[in-house]
Amino acid sequence: MTIKIINKSHHPLPHYETNASAGMDLRANISEPRILKPLERSIVGTGLFMELPVGYEAQVRPRSGLAAKHGITVLNAPGTIDADYRGEIGVILVNLSNEPFTIQNGERIAQLVIAKHERAVWELVEALSETDRGEGGFGSTGVK
């Protein structure tokens, strides 16, 4: 699949690190380092603009290393970029640690996964089919 992209940053385009990678790293495109205090959130620009084909979305997801080592994650994970959006790709980062974290220009801050999706059409009905689970909700299929 080919996706049109504009790169207004000075960083390389996102790319797959291995043949089996699902995501491509997004890099911070900021003019100076940004300190993210504990429990603080910030939208970090990437300098990237893209044109996805209709029927696809781009999912912005956390990087496991930042989350495990520093408590930095994507607040609305996964964030969805729709095919008709043409603005800059921004990443909502949050610091869930007890320590300030400094975001550097060019730092890999999130990953981007391209995914196909379907459009739903609602069918209004009076009843749904029966299942073993029924209305069992949160934790209903867990350990007894």
Features:
single chain; 144 residues; mainly beta; Deoxyuridine 5'-Triphosphate Nucleotidohydrolase, Chain A; 4-stranded antiparallel beta sheet; 3-stranded antiparallel beta sheet; 1 helix; 35% strand; globular
What does the model show?
This protein has 144 residues and is mainly beta. It has one domain: Deoxyuridine triphosphatase (dUTPase) (Deoxyuridine 5'-Triphosphate Nucleotidohydrolase, Chain A). It has one helix and eleven strands. The strands form four sheets. It has a four-stranded antiparallel β-sheet, with no helix packed on it. Strands 4-9-7 form a three-stranded antiparallel β-sheet. Strands 1-5 form a two-stranded antiparallel ribbon. It is globular and about 55 Å long. Keywords: Hydrolase, Magnesium, Metal-binding, Nucleotide metabolism. One of its GO terms (molecular function) is dUTP diphosphatase activity. Belongs to the dUTPase family. This enzyme is involved in nucleotide metabolism: it produces dUMP, the immediate precursor of thymidine nucleotides and it decreases the intracellular concentration of dUTP so that uracil cannot be incorporated into DNA. Pathway: Pyrimidine metabolism; dUMP biosynthesis; dUMP from dCTP (dUTP route): step 2/2.
Q: Output the structural class.
A: mainly beta
Termini separation comes to: 46 Å
CATH architecture: Distorted Sandwich
CATH class: Mainly Beta
Binding site for substrate: 63-65, 76, 80-82
EC number: 3.6.1.23
Pathway: Pyrimidine metabolism; dUMP biosynthesis; dUMP from dCTP (dUTP route): step 2/2
Cofactor: Mg(2+)
In short:
This protein has 144 residues and is mainly beta.
